[in-house]
Amino acid sequence: MIVRRFLQWVRTAGAAERAEATAALARAYLYSDLSPDDRAATEGALIMSLDDPSPLVRIALARALAFSEDAPLVVILGLAGDQAEVAGWVLQHSPLMVDGDLIDAAAAGDTGMQLAIANRGGLAPAVSAAIAEVGAPEACLVLVENPSAELAPLSLDRIVERFGHLAAIREALLTRDDLPAPTRQSLVAKLSETLAGFVTAREWLEAERAERVTREACEKATVTLAANSPRGEVQPLIEHLRESGQLNAGLILRALLSGNVALFEHALADLSGLPLTRVSALVHDRRSASLRALYERAGLPASTYAAFHEAVEAMNDVGAMGPIGPMEGQDGAVRLRRRVVERVLARCADGSIGDVEPLLTLLRRFAAEAAREEARAFCAELVADDAIVYDDTDAELSHDERAAA
Q1: Torsion sign across C-alpha atoms 298, 303, 305, 307
Q2: Could you read off the pLDDT of 34-56 as tens digits, one per residue?
């Protein structure tokens, strides 16, 4: 009887009144003790409400049913296919929506629906993968920031590939603790490409120079990333660098001259196909023939061998070929070591090793960078020491003032 009256009343009632009454009917279906006949009639009225011309009514219906497991499935699915303002409620909250339903909704391409799905609690990897593959940038950003969404490494890589040039998505990805080292490096490379394009488009730098500057910055960041990554992530990082064409002699030489022997050895092992233990033994073997054979097997340019050989010798002489100790700090294997770089530069510039002008140009840039980094560190240390002195002086003055009082 109540449902019959409702159906007669909604024909003439206003949209706001229909919305309120429809929500009340939905709550009665969920929480009232209805007879089987009344429940069936109520469900029919709710299904009919899916055709209401006013979105206010359908939104009210979605809000009333979205959070319940006892909602009529046919109504939930009907609401999920509605416009984004209506569908968003059930796509984000309804426990009746299975992964297949969510994937189909994401593939429809409506940004509002994708945002609702990306914000859903406990999002399964398959649904996250669908958003990563076809989602709008706004949806991918919400997905990355959703702490309960399960994101597989491949999905993270796909988001980087599609939207790594967007600052908001880069920042959100970099705050994730579960971001693999190869994915972080991809973000660094994307940033380098974006910056190079930016300065070139504004004619601040010539295209060639902008590319060189950003490439060297990317290599520096990659060495830092490798030094600060868990040891188990170094090999995947090396494989990523090789597959993306970034594992070149310049990057490997920078790693060695920074004292990052682990990255150097992993790179040679990957390029040569030899076991890491064997490569490590050959690197620490001070016979030049062993290192040369390894270097040639790795397929690195012959013109740069002298720099690698002298760098290994210099690192052995200063005792830097072992693991980085706990007292060396964060910069232990990320900053170019000035003494080593200058020694290698002097050896390669003495004219006895052939025409290596491109190598000398690279080493001179390394030497300048190392000098600047050393100066920055020195000045920072001086400022820190001054701050300590001032704090001690202030403490003494305060003690004297208290004594005088």
Answers
A1: negative
A2: 889 989 999 999 999 999 999 99
